[in-house]
Known about the structure:
6 helices
Amino acid sequence: PFGEHINTQGSVEELGYYQLEGAVGCETGLPYGSLSPHFAASYFEQTKVPTLMVPCCCGASTVKQWWPGTTQQRFELAVEKTEKSIDAVEEIGRTIRHKNLVWLQGESDGYGSGVGNKTKNYKNNFLTFWRAIKEALGLEKCLIIRVAKFREGLKYNTLPIMEAQEQLALENDDIELVTRITGYLEYPAQNPENPTLQHHEQGYPASNHDHYTWE
Length: 215
């Protein structure tokens, strides 16, 4: 997740290159990429529309942990961080014309081998979160990057989550499914010439074998 656990309180000398520059997607020598700033740069190159990306990420989280009033306070922190970021941009004379949420999440909700009510539960839980943060920040749309298969062979089954996200986009005008590309990424064994998923064979930690490379 972009910006997760990045401490930005302090000078470059106090925090080091990785803590500051790494937070915006620069090369750090570590096997972790920040997709959001690269997306923003590409978007600007093609449209010439400046874009503010506010990272509010946490790995291994279920959608219910993003509800208002939870002990994790992820909802409250995301709202506060976004409001402060918008204020900072407006203070320098920029106008925010559109506000949207980009959402890539769902692996943890797929935990457990059974299917059961996963699709229905995810839809209901997500809508609780989305309606709350939409109202709090005045958002227009939620742009979903559909979740991919995750840790195949272990106790994860994200197919019901994929289906939930498909249904959410079909049934709600303010939710759009913007890409399914994560479902087509491949491991080195599947595509030796151009693998697009990290794997321990590439020198990544074994626990990182289902995360995305920058490409």
